[in-house]
Design goal:
Distance between the termini: 33 Å
Mean pLDDT: 89
Structural class: alpha+beta
Order of helices and strands: HHHHEEEHEEEEEEE
CATH class of the largest domain: Mainly Beta
CATH architecture of the largest domain: Sandwich
Strand order of the largest sheet: 4-3-8-9
Shape: globular
CATH topology of the largest domain: Immunoglobulin-like
Number of helices: 5
Low-confidence stretches: none
Strand content: 25-35%
CATH superfamily of the largest domain: Immunoglobulins
Length: 225
């Protein structure tokens, strides 16, 4: 998605409604006038206008030209990042591991208790990021990070809620050149964000590599190996 950065510099907020259909006007009205506070998060990366000049629009390689495409491979600062979004509420979010026996589970406490708080939604996003050592070890492109899960909760003004994040092994998997889903031995990171600020980053250790899923032989291209 190409940008309108000249407007973004001057405008305190921009509403991206995409194709709002029949009920879209009502939803926009309710939100603009503060009668609702359930804003979404951006499902695309908004690139600067220079992106079209630095990358061929006919080259769909995700790592093209060292610039990359999509939030998973793009290496430059975007105008608006994937997953970002504003709200009338400023929620306070903190995450921690509940204990050594649940090292791959995390609790996030969301508080909407600031002065002048407005009831509304919070959206927690969970990303996987492989360590620099894993990136250097493998022989295929590795995303900078990958969205693994998200959750939305409505939090009334003056109240709090708790959200549980459980990380299964497959969230740490990467796809190799043969189309296999592989969890590589080494350090992995689980990053939790509300779309605007990183809330927490947890380091997970995998002792040995494991193939979780292989591509059926009938689907493997001859040059994959």
């Amino acid at each position: 998605m190409l940008s309108i950065e000249r407007l973004a510099v001057k405008a305190p907020a921009i509403i991206e409604a995409f194709y709002p259909a029949m009920r879209g006007a009502e939803a926009i009205f309710l939100h603009v006038f503060g009668l609702a506070n359930r804003w979404g998060r951006l499902p695309v990366t908004v690139y600067p206008s220079s992106f079209a000049e630095s990358v061929s629009m006919y080259d769909f390689n995700m790592t093209v030209g060292g610039v990359g495409r999509t939030y998973r491979y793009y290496t430059q600062p975007p105008v608006f990042a994937f997953g970002s979004g504003l709200s009338y509420s400023r929620m306070n979010v903190s995450c921690h591991s509940p204990g050594p026996d649940a090292s791959w589970s995390f609790l996030c406490r969301v508080s909407n208790t600031d002065a002048g708080a407005v009831s509304g939604d919070v959206v927690i996003q969970v990303y996987h990021r492989a360590s620099a050592a894993i990136r250097q070890e493998v022989d295929h492109p590795v995303p900078w990070r990958s969205l693994r899960d998200f959750d939305r909760a409505f939090v009334s003004a003056g109240e709090s809620t708790v959200m549980l994040v459980e990380v299964p092994l497959e969230w740490l998997a990467l796809t190799n050149r043969a189309g296999e889903l592989v969890v590589y031995a080494g350090t992995h990171f689980v990053e939790i964000t509300d779309g605007n600020e990183q809330i927490a980053s947890f380091e997970l250790q995998v002792k040995e590599s494991k193939v979780l899923e292989s591509m059926p032989e009938s689907m493997v291209w001859p040059w994959a190996n």
